[in-house]
Automatic annotation (TrEMBL):
Coiled coil: none annotated. This is Monooxygenase. The keyword Oxidoreductase applies. Residues 175-238 form the 2,6-dihydroxypyridine 3-monooxygenase substrate binding domain. Residues 299-363 form the FAD-binding domain. It holds the Pfam family FAD_binding-like. GO terms for molecular function: FAD binding; monooxygenase activity. Keywords: Monooxygenase, Oxidoreductase.
Amino acid sequence: MRGGSIAVVGGSIAGSAFARAATRQGAERVVVLERSPGRLEDRGVGICILDDRFAELVGAGHVTEDVRRHRLTVRRWITRDASRGGDARGRHLWAQPFAFHSYHWGVLWQALRERMPGNVEYRLGTTVTAVGTGEDDAWITDTTGAREPYDLVIGADGYRSVVREAVCPDALPEYAGYVCWRGSYDAERLAELPGGAEAWPEQECATVCYPGGQVVIYRIPGVTPGRTQVNWVFYAPAPAWLRLDGPTSIPAGTLDDGRADELKALAERELPPYWAALVTLTPLERTFLQPIYDLATPRRTAGRLLLAGDAATVVRPHNTSGAVKALQDAHAFEDAWRAGRSWAATLSAYDRERVTMGRELVELGRRLGRAQVGAAPDWSTMDEPGMIAWWQQQLTGSGGFGGHALTRRS
Ligand SMILES: Cc1cc2nc3c(=O)[nH]c(=O)nc-3n(C[C@H](O)[C@H](O)[C@H](O)COP(=O)(O)OP(=O)(O)OC[C@H]3O[C@@H](n4cnc5c(N)ncnc54)[C@H](O)[C@@H]3O)c2cc1C
């Protein structure tokens, strides 16, 4: 099957991967509609990707090996626990082997964007307000009220997807009961900490555990080549001021000093001094907050609509699989397209391939979240053998930490 016109709603990781996948398979016209008017590469957050999953995606042609990244080899689990020998960096619990690299979200996005064929039309600053489908086509409307028909509309519009409302209106992200604060800054500032940057080896991802949560801290590449940033994700109970009437987040630049002071107080109360100081070095405008959600849609397609990435499945970040999942969705879409003789066959093959996988990842994310945050052990009783046994228990079942292996049918 070749040809056809395709609208991709959302131009982030999933949107970029699907736009490229569609052109690779011979779509005649591909239009990406992205709400954000500005430079998406400025979104300053880190993500980790398991080396094996990344290598598979390179092999399948979705990313290139030369994306700037930071090597991680060890995930060091730590707790404060001064009574059992914890120093300024805390008490060591476990040095877990960790075959991951970390990426700057914006650098990864830029790499995907650069590989986009020139004939893909990008409309930045365009918000899609509604979509719909008939048997033989689909349509979108944007804020101007204009309605445009396409052969296929792909919803890569994230956890608050407009396209999902049309595919499965009852599927809504479910609040997991806790939030994460996030932040990043130039790693040169680590010199300001007592102990400096040397106290924290470059290839270590630190996971600092406390009753009620944990902070995951790792370095990522800076937007500028040659620079490095510190990136952290601080899981915590929701602050009293947060209103959760529906899926939401508190973006960078909108927190005030009072709310940031709550984070500082939490860090100083719960973390060993080195890590508390590392978190509190973060500039206010680089600090933000995201509630944690779970979402597994019962189906991914309806008529000529298709869901991709976080629009279809939101997995708790403990699983470090979101970016891989989005890229693998694009891979499955290409496989389905290559094998399908009609749009209906392509969409139903894609749906079959990805729905169960999504459910399994969400389930694993829930299990990891319960074990590490909601019903975490008493860290003061844990040692290395205890940590290894505790980790193994979390992975029973379908597996998929860091994402499932890529299946290739081509
Ligand atoms: C705290 C945290 C840590 C994470 N860590 C990792 C990690 O270590 N490794 C990993 O692999 N994943 C991680 N993830 C998950 C990962 O970031 C996401 O799964 C991934 O970025 C999803 O990409 P996406 O393209 O599907 O959605 P998004 O990145 O949410 O993109 C959706 C896009 O759609 C646009 N949009 C939305 N609505 C509209 C509209 N109506 N019209 C037009 N455009 C619209 C938005 O502006 C946005 O650009 C983490 C997530 C969180 C919250």
